[in-house]
Amino acid sequence: MLPHRRDVFGIPVAGLILFFAFADLMLAVPRIDLASSALFYTPGVGFAMDGQRWERVMYHSVEWLMVAVNLALVALWLFNRIARRTVLGFTGRKLTLLLCLLAILPGLLVNQVLKENWGRARPAQVTEFGGEHRFTPAFVYSDQEGGSFSSGHAAAAFYLVAVAAVLRGPRSGWVIAATLYAALVGFARIAAGGHFLSDVITSAFLVLFGYLVLRRLFFVNVSATDVQPRSAQDRAD
Length: 237
Hints:
Blueprint: E1 7-8, E2 11-12, H1 13-28, H2 31-38, E3 41-42, E4 46-47, H3 53-83, H4 92-117, H5 152-168, H6 173-191, H7 197-218
Antiparallel strand pairs: 1-2, 3-4
């Protein structure tokens, strides 16, 4: 008898089931995307929240945080290395995990592979919202050269959840705060007509799965709880 598998490459089976259930739902009822975007659309006006100050702040905050947070991570690792300290239990292996996650998921998979090649038109571009392109469901390839699927800003924002989990643990208040921030970024992109709801949720799933796979690869013999910072036991690489 085959052993019961609770995860696949570090991803819980329940998480994979949830993702495929979500994908099936969006394919079966694609109007969920149209209905959620319609909440922010006014005929003759467009997506009124597009260009609002708070929306622009959320949009650009992702870029600023990507630079600031990752420079801070490198600085923290250098400090631990030079001072032979273990602040937040942050090691070179954890730094490499996070930088690989950033490069592979938001950087390569979402922004270079999906957004550049999937072709899904953005909400503001489809005929239902005053545009000239046709609406296509999530997970369905389109030849319209749109950049809607999936959301690069949401993927980068959800990367910060992984940063918080590595630095402070998955049950910390920092993870909650980072998740709320990422959700707000996703909300801003939907409200501005830049992405559909499914684009944002897909990016969240992809970054989560990428983090779990990389955590398994980088800490193959370590339990999930042992990946969390323990300053008394972690050693700076």
